[in-house]
Write a structure and sequence with these properties.
This protein is mostly beta strands. Strands 2-10-9-4-5-6 form a 6-stranded mixed beta sheet, with no helix packed on it.
Amino acid sequence: QVQLVESGGGLVQAGGSLRLSCAASRIIFANNAMGWYRQAPGKQRELVASITIGGRANYADSVKGRFTISRDNAKNTVYLQMNSLKPEDTAVYYCNTPFGPLPWGQGTQVTVSS
């Protein structure tokens, strides 16, 4: 049973933009806050942005002002708009709920070249 499917990653030059999408099961989006996480090789997975059911967002300092998280509960989808990308943003990006995380999906690779 697939519950989290990330998409939208790719290769982009520094300063460019990408928009990531996460499709999840209806019950998850109806009842939970959602977050975007990222993991670079050799590093721990870290939370970069989260959004409540009502749409209130929080961001890690490293992405504040550059990334925007949003959700469409009717479509069971959470988005991450990433602007002004930097090489240090390179990672595999995952979505999940911070409140009782589901098994992790495959993630989507974001690579930012200098």
